[in-house]
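User:
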Amino acid sequence: MTADRPPFRDPALPVPRRVDDLLGRLTPEERLALLHQFAPAVERLGVAAFRTGQEALHGVAWMGPATVFPQAVGLGATWHPELVRRVGEAVSREARAMRAKDDRVGLNVWAPTVNLLRNPLWGRGEEGYSEDPLLTSAIATAYTRGLRGDHPVHWRTAPVLKHWLAHNNEAARDTSSASVRPRVLREYDLRAFRGPVEAGAVAGVMPAYNLVNGRPNHLSPHLETELRSWTDQELLVCSDAGAPSNLADSQGYFPSHEEAVAAALRAGVDSFTDHGTDSSIVLGRLRRALERGLIGQEDVDRAVRRQLTVRFRLGEFDPELDPYAHEDRFDTPEHRELAREAAEAAIVLLRNEPVETGAAPEGGRPVLPLDGAAGRIAVVGLLGDAVKLDWYSGSLLHRSSPLDGLRERFGAHRVDFAEGVDRIRLRTASGDLLRVPETAPEDGARGAEAALDPALVAGRTDLPPLTADATGSVLDLVDWGDGVLTLRAPGGRYLSVAGDGLVRASADEPGGWVVQETFRLEAHGGGHLLLHLGTGGYVSVAADGVKVAAGRESAEVFTVETVERGEEVVARAAAGAETVVVVAGNDPHIGGRETEDRTTLALPPHQERLWRAAHAANPRTVLVLVSSYPYAVPEAAVSLPALLWTAHGGQAAGTALARVLAGDVSPAGRLPQTWYASDTDLPGMLDYDVIGSRQTYLYFDGTPLFPFGHGLSYTAFGYEGLTAAVDGETVRISCAVTNTGAVASDEVVQVYGRAVAPSVPRPHRELLAHERVHLEPGAGAELSFTVPLESLGHWDVAHGRWTVEPGPYEIHAGASSADLRRTVRVEVAGTAPGPRPVLAAGLEAADYDEQSGTAIVDRAKHAGDAVTPLSPGAGGRLVHRACDFGDGVTEVAVRVAGEGEVALCLPDGTVLARVPVPPTGGPYAYRTLGAPIALQGVVDLHTELHGPLRLAHLTFAG
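Assistant: Predicted structure:
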C-alpha cells in the first residue's frame, strides 16, 4: 500500500485484516476513547467521530419527522415476516437519507426488542413482538434483514438487539433479579435472540438493566458462552444508558466504578453508554482500571476491534463503494403505502357477531363489515380522534386518526364524534376558579425539535401560567386508570409543569421521560388536593400564578365541579347513529411504559363507562381497542357484537382501521400474546418461570379471554390434507387451506407440536411454523413446512444437553393455538434419556426439576449459578428427579456459602442427611461440607435449604 492509502483503506482486503491495520495505527489512548458511545474523531488518520445508538424500533426515532409504522407489538400481530422485512428496509433507507442531511442520525440502530412478552403487565410490552420465541425470532429476523440490507459486504444500518436477557419488569428494573432456571433460559429466552443472530443480520446486542440469577446482565457470561458461539462474525455489545454506573451505584455489585467497568469489559461489553456525551467519566474509570491491572490492553483492543468491524460494514472507510451512500428515499409514496399496509395487517378482529342476539344464529349477519349504504356512524371514545406516539416513535409527517379515516371513507357528513371527556371546573377554597389565559395560536410544540435524547427537552416557559378568577375555564379531564388524570385546556393543550414549577397549558400531548402532564385528585377536607405526579408536589395558587408546591401544607383545596359527564355526550351521539364505533385504549406515555409496569389488565373505569353508555344507547356498538398491550374485558367480549384490537398503528392507523371496518380489506392480524380474562390468571411480575408458574399459551392451564394466535376474518377457511413425516433431522409438514367464503382475505396458517407422553412438563402446544397466505374466494393453497426435528425437543437438565425424546408427537394445523383444525401423529425414534448420572457428575443445584421457595443466584461474580431460599426463615426445596445412585453411596458433599442447613430427603419426607453450615464468611465464600448418607438405585432427591445460604453443587461418593 502507498503511504496515502494504508491497508485499512483498501476495500480489496478482508475486513478483519483492515480492522487489524487500523487498530495497529491507533495509540492506546485513541483506542480507549473509542469505548464510549460518543467516540471522537482521529483526525490524523482521517477517522470520523462515531456514535453507537440510533433508535429505530418502528421508524427512525428522536431525530424529528420520519415515517411512523405500527408499534413493534403491532408488527408482531401481522405474523408476516416479509412485510416486516419491508418495514425494516424502509426504516433503514430513511435513516440513511436523514443522515445525509444531519450527521447526528446514527447508522448503528438499537432495534429490534426481542424480549418475550411473558407477562402482559410489563410496561414495555409495546416494544416486543410476541410471547412466543419462534414468532419473535421470525419477526425479529425479518426486521433486522430489512435494516441490514442484502449487500454481501456493506450494511445499510447495523442493528443491535435489545435487551439481553430475560427482561420483563420495569419496577426496580436496575436492582431486581430474574430467577431463570436452565430450561426456561434455553427453551424460552435464548431462542428469541438466537434466530436473528444465526441469520447474520445482527451487528450486536444491548444487555438489559436487570440482573439474571443474581448477576447484572452487563456481566452475563452468556454473552460469550452462548451469543458469540452462534456466529463467526464479530458482535458489538453496547451497554444500556447509565448501566455501567449502576454496577457500582444502585446495584452495589462492585465497591468501585473501576472494578465495575473492568468486569463489564471482560464480560464482553464493547461500548459504554454512560453520562451522555461526556465521555471523560467512563474513560477515566477505564484508564484507572488499566493502571490497576484490572484489565489489559488486549481487553480494550478486543472491544475496539468489534466496533471498528461494524464501522467497516457500514462503508465508512470506502464510501465510494458503499451502495447505500446516496440513499435519499424518505417519506416516499411507497413508504406511506407501506405504513398503511402494515397498519391494516396488524388489526385483529376478536369478535364479530350479529347485533340481535350476540350469538350468531343461522343466517344472521355479523355487524362487520359496515354497510357502505348505512346511515350515520358515531365515533366515540378517548382515542377516537387520536394518533398516539410512544417513547420510541418519530414525529409524525402524516396523521390519520380513526375519526379521520372513517370520515374519509364514509364522508364527513355521515360521521359524528364525541370524545367522552369529563368537563370540569376547579374551584379554590376562596371561591375562585382556575383559569387558563388566552394565548395566540402558534406553531411548534414541545419536543418537535430533533433531540438525541428527548428526555432532555425542557417544558415550555414562554406561556403564561394558570391563574384563578371568578370566571375560570372548563377543563377536559381524562382518568387513564389508577386515578392518573390529564387536564386539557379549552385551546387543546394539556396542563403541564416546567422547571420553574408553574402550571401552564403548554403541551400538545403528554410525554417526556418524566411525564409532566399527569395529576391525581386526593380527597382532603371535603374537597381535593391536586397532586402533580411528575414532581410529586401539590398544586397551589399564588400571586404569580398557579404552581406546584413542595408539600401538602401549602396545597390548594379544590372543589371539583362537573359541567358534563363524558358518558352523557357519548350516549347522545350513540342514540343518533345507526352504528357506534367506540375507540378506547391507552396513551403510551401513561400507565404502562418504560420505567412503569401496569397494575391491572382492566380497562380504565372512565373508558368502561363510555362503552357501556354507548351500548346502552345503541346495541349496534363496535369496540376498538387501540393499545400497547392486552386488556381483560370479559363483559365487553360477550355483550358487544364486535370487538377489535390494534396496537398504536402509526401515521396511517385511521385509514387502515376504516378500510377494515368498511370491508375494503379483510382483517387478518393475529394475537401475538395471550389475552387473559383476569388479573388472577397472572403470576407475579418477577416470576420468570414460565414452566413452573404455567405462563403463556405454552403452559397456561386456564381459559383465556382470547388465545394466542386468535383472529377472525370476513370469510372462512377450510383445512385439509395435513401430513407430517420425520425425515432425518427434519419434520416435513404439509397441509391444504382453502378460502371457503365469499371474501378475499389473508389467512395465517399456524402449525403446532406437542409431545404426547413427555417425561418432564412440556407445553400444551408449541408453535413450530406459520405462514400468512392471501386467498381469493374459492382458492386454495398447498403449504409445506420444514421444521427442524430439534424444535420438538427440550433442555435435558439431567444431562446438560438438548434432547428430543423418542415417542409420539402430535402435529396440529389451524387458525390459532385453540382452533386446531387438523391433527396427525409422528413417531420419533431413538433412545430415551436415562436417569441423572449422579455418581459421575454430581448435582448442580440450579439444574432442578422442580422447586418451591427458592431463587437462583450468582455463584461467583463472573459465572456460575447457586440456589438460595427466597425467605431464609421459611426455607426452600429443590427436587432432582430420577437420580441414579447405582449400587449405593455413603457420603454427600455440598458446595455451599453462607450459613444454615442443607437437608436431603426422600419424597415422603424421610431425612437422609443433614449438613449444618457454619458461617463461611460471605455469599461468595464457598466451602465443601460433608455428611454420611445411604442411597442406592434411582430415586427422586429432595433438598431442603434453611437459612441465608447458597447451594451450588452436591457430590456423592462411597
